[in-house]
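Box S2. Input/output pair 1.
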Amino acid sequence: MTRHTHQNIALSTKLTVGVALVATTLLALLPFFKIGFCNIDDLEYFITAQSTWNDWQADHLRYARYSGRFYFLITKYFYYIPYLIDSFAYTKTVQYITLLACYALFAYLVGRGLQSQPAAVLTLLMLVAYTTITPDFYFMPTTNYPFYFTFSLILFMYGILLYFNYQRSGGRWRLWLMGAALFASCLFYEVYVLLTGLFAVAIALQHWRTKGLTDALRSRNMWQELAPTVGSVLLYCGCYFGYRAWLAAAVPNSAVYTGTLFASSFSGSNFVKVLMDLTRVNLPGQVYAYNTDLVAANSQLIAGHRNGLLPILTHASSSVRIGALLQCALLWWLGGRTSLRNISWRRLGVAATVAVVLAFAVHIPLAISEKYNSEWFGAVRCYVTSFFSYFGVMLGIVIAFTATIKAVGLTKWQCPLRAAWCAALLATSVVTSYSNEHIGREWVKSQNRFTAIDLMAREGYFDTLPDNAILYLHEFNTTSPTAYSLTSDTVRKLLERYINFRAKREISSTVDSQRLAEMISTNPDAPVYYLHAVESHSNCELLMAIAKLDSMPANTDSALSTSHADVFYLSPNKEFVVIYTVSGHTQMLPVSAERNSKITHFAIDGTGLDPRSILISNMTDNNI
């Protein structure tokens, strides 16, 4: 076989592997593309991003002073970048381009560290295969905080890459650029300060191993390499504590965010629990194990959802099974790569140490803080740091696979072992994607509320409300069985801001019955508009009916009465029957709407109409 033929085969193999990686990545991320706002922070950042420069300034000053974090004065603007354009497609593009860039850069660094291109491909494969959606607010950035943390992680990893390039090609400028990148990443989150410090320790240990302790301490080269990393940490700490001291003097007796205070009653058991819990969520299949009830509630299976590996494998969607089979094919091919088996045990040991440290150490700032030693945090299973920990856990899986392949070599156990790994990947990947589909459907239902408001504003509905009207959104926070709660005072204000932003006018609204009573007592002549909402569990359909009440009963659970209701039905179904009650009698109204409209808008009239009785007959699995 000629050299030219070998080159053609190698190119063909690379193209095949590349296409398979792209295909499985798209299939793995498929449940993510319809997910919108998943926590109050993102909602606030969106509203602020669409505001004025003065609002931006006030926002970053408020955050910096409240949290005691000087870096918000510099980097808070980065939260707004994915929301600069009021476009769902733009936000999703920014979010997943930077997420995949994180994956690719981390995989490249692993390949450089292990001196194996297949190791890089294997790392990328694992990162994609186990990307997870959770119903918790703070597991990001697969659902939350688009761009901010992914961009900052890219900065940090770019600093590490500069160090690798310095070791290979020299150039002191690379060291100082590395220091700038590491310091810049520290301005986004305290975890990077910890990681930069650990990286400095790794540099010192490397010199100690190669030169001995005495010669390492005398080595000018070691101190040149340490200067940018240690300098970054010291500069950050100086700015951080200097700002806290200034803040205490400038604003005495001001409340400080408890997440940035050391725990007053530190507990060693809680410390270990935080590290374990926030890391465990990244284990393959763990999110499904945590949320079997939620998955069952969102199942689209006619026979219902059944727990167990076999029912999931047989009832998973075609895209899930195809993606898993592609992943297994890639894993089988990687298991036969010579350069993967030839990685030295020493490099594998170093990589395993990095994996363990990265998986657990990133939670230390949380575990020693006042906020996360509270009872509230005991129920939280994942947080922002779980995102960073994810890379450590996936690196651990890569090391485990590589070590077992290397241990058996070319013996008769090679093929059975590779088959066992592929079977394990098939099962856990399908379970992961299956839970992603169902949990993702929950977040789609959350987004439906905002989509409906957007479409109502586009149709000009809010223009028809009187200036003194009160919009009571009592059921707006009860349609979804989990996750996105809209009951807190902070969220109420943000929801009102969102409605006013879309309506381009000031509308008084509330989700709280006590506040409603206060608003009515202040303005007894104000008309009250009641929002009735019904949502289907599995099909992600949302019915919203808004009606001006004839009178507001003292007990909001009592029957309501109106003569006119505007109904908005967010569903691809355009042929349906509406059921409602007028003066105690059930009525039915067949509706046939335009198929090119995303939301169906129609009106129901009748004296004594109870707006809470309105229901679409097709919504058989609704949450009433």
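Box S3. Input/output pair 2.
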Amino acid sequence: MSYHSRIEGAVSDSDAVATRDKVVIIVTPRAEPSEDAAGGEVAAEPSRAAEAPSLEAPDAAGDGAGAAPAPEAAEAAPPRERGPEDDELLGAVIMVDLGADPSPLTDFLGRSLLYRAARVASDVGAPRLILIGHIPPDQRDRVYDEAYRGFREGVVELSADDITERSLGRGRVLFLDGTALHDVEAVRRLVRVRGDKTALLLGQNGDGFKVALHEGKVVEIGGDVSPFDGIMVGAASIPVEDFERITRVGQRAALRALGEEGRLIGIVATETFGRQFRDEERIERAEVECFDALAASGTEGLFEDLIGRPFARLVTLKLLRTRISAGTVSVVAGVLALLAAGLLALGHAGLALLGSVLAIASAVLDRSDGELARLRLEDDEGRMLDFGLDHLTHALIFLGLAVGVSNPASGVGGWPETLARLPGPLRTWLEAHQVSAMTVGLVAAGGVLLLLAVSLWRGEPSPRSRGLRRLGDLVATSFGSRDAFYVLFGFAVFNAFPGMAEMGVLGFFLLLAAALVHLAWCALFLVSIPAPRPPAPAQ
């Protein structure tokens, strides 16, 4: 084998790096040492090919490094008989050029581009992560940390020279541009490509090269291709026999040669937010455009989307680059919800209005804590706990409101006023069975718990669900989004007007909530029977 793994002597300058010898491997070419005048060893000079720009990054001249290689260098290796092992994913490779604009260490909504690329490699199931590039000693610690944490503490290999087919084995290599933003779902689709062709991931946005296709094959690449079918978004799936060719010959030239041979295809991901950046100025605009794609949970209701979403975005952006954790925001949201339930329980019109405002503030912070966690790419061990606490908050709000309606303050309409304005048959039934406001509150809280149980049974909603599964997701998100708190605020405002409280407005809301939550869990259960939990995404 032409490569061996060792920890370079320069690494020993940092204790922090030295402790990573089991997870960080620095790969250098095997070379016979030579003797200098003083009798010491002289290391082989690493190849300059590792300093070439990343796969699709345009340069000022509109061409990649090595755009004019010798014809014999661009010739493809003779075809070989392929087997199943040639379609296996060997690993992900990221070119690290810290002098690029933007740098792989550039922050994008709370995480560096390198961290995000490493996390995508982990999410799509790459068994190893290889970084290629010359890393200055003063940047080494940060590069190691970003890649190591992004790859979920898997083994990270670093090389100052090109990686050869012989050192990789047989299979395919996932190439990720370290200065691009990657969409894990689009890259996962790219990883499924099989065969002997190199596949480029294309989107509709970004600053990569434009690509024209004919029946899926790439027929033209360049900055001014018109018409074009997609823009390179910084990811490619490459058969290992072509990987060395692409990195050594000059990436754009090699891609053109592969295209002329009919061995280059394009995978168009029309919904991807992945993109490349020409410079850091483009990143600011991209952060605005990509915020929802990275931060949204897919469980937004109508009122939360129209009202809560803008406020949550402001809070999230303020907290994003602070040390405040998503867990801390969750605690504050829970405290506000408890205060809201307590104020509602006092049975006073003004305090009920204040309580509904605190409930909305809790909902905004609850949305913001999820956005913070997703933007920071934090692992979601606490996601299900947060999901359960959301439903518990609904139950507490309903119980607090039931106490307030049962024991209203002087001059405030309570349960009798609500009953007096109900349709005759319903009023007669409730009075005959002596149904109190507390009973309705308990029924509403019980419905919330049943909805939680059904939601856990069927699995979390997905933005890509279809048919009955999609209908079930809409039912689940319509309640789980905390839209009920915004409706409660509207009832509380109406209740606060002079002469309106005596109409039993808050009691009406309590009845409506109890009916809707039971309707929601029943509907969710019925539509989920023929549309069971979907399988986990293939890794």
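Caption for Box S3: The CA atoms of residues 111 and 376 lie 6 Å apart. The first strand starts at residue 3 and ends at 6.
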